[in-house]
Design a protein that fits this description.
Elements: H1 2-24, E1 29-31, E2 34-35, E3 40-45, E4 50-55, E5 58-64, E6 68-72, E7 83-88, E8 95-98, E9 101-102, H2 108-143, H3 151-159, H4 164-182, H5 184-203
Parallel strand pairs: 2-9
Antiparallel strand pairs: 1-3, 3-6, 4-5, 4-7, 7-8
Helix pairs in contact: 2-3, 2-4, 2-5
Length: 205
């Protein structure tokens, strides 16, 4: 009986030591918040850990952690899909973490307002040029009259200070400037419409 007690007494410290070693071989994994606009997943883990990203059962990306890790994805993660990270290291217990994708709300109203202000600024810049062109148009039309003896032609020539060619050149230059200054408007209108659509889409999520 003394022999059995002696064996048990000697074995107990080793059992506790083995238990302590097992607990020290647990992986530590911390993942930073992820939103549906992010193209990287970052976090911290035990050095040398292999971190694998899954979408369902499909492997999306892998990374070996040096303590901090950053996994790039080809497109932002869809909050409707199921993702998880699997952390593995030889001699350690593997750890699976389900990812929670946060829907990031974008202030599309602010973007729409900014573009609207840009559109307004361009229109205000072009407005006096358009008014000048409109004021010149009747005289340009009169100068194109084949009858230089007509009263309209003579009035237009007087408006042009006797130089019809210079007046027409000024008119054409103004029209070209209006076209160049107004050129960004098309893209701005398209961008604004896209943000309006995305704003409505976001509200429906």
């Amino acid at each position: 009986m003394k022999k059995i007690n002696l064996i048990l007494g000697l074995s107990l410290p080793f059992m506790f030591l083995s238990s302590a070693n097992a607990s020290s071989h647990k992986l530590t994994v911390k993942i930073n918040p992820i939103n549906d606009q992010a193209k990287t997943i970052t976090g911290k883990t035990t050095k040398g850990t292999k971190v694998t990203l899954y979408e369902g059962r499909k492997t999306i990306a892998k990374k070996k952690s040096s303590g901090n890790f950053s996994i790039k994805v080809t497109k932002p993660l869809n909050f409707k899909n199921k993702y998880h990270l699997l952390a593995t290291k030889k001699g350690y217990t593997s750890k699976k973490i389900n990812l929670k994708i946060i829907v990031k709300r974008i202030d599309y109203d602010a973007k729409i307002k900014q573009i609207t202000n840009q559109i307004k600024a361009i229109k205000n810049q072009v407005k006096p040029l358009r008014q000048q062109v409109q004021a010149m148009e009747p005289f340009i039309n009169a100068l194109e009259n084949d009858d230089p003896t007509s009263s309209d032609y003579q009035t237009a020539l007087q408006q042009a200070n006797g130089n019809a060619e210079a007046y027409e050149e000024q008119y054409n230059n103004l029209k070209a400037q209006i076209k160049a200054d107004s050129n960004p408007l098309g893209l701005l209108y398209d961008q604004r419409q896209a943000y309006i659509y995305k704003s409505m889409e976001q509200l429906l999520k």
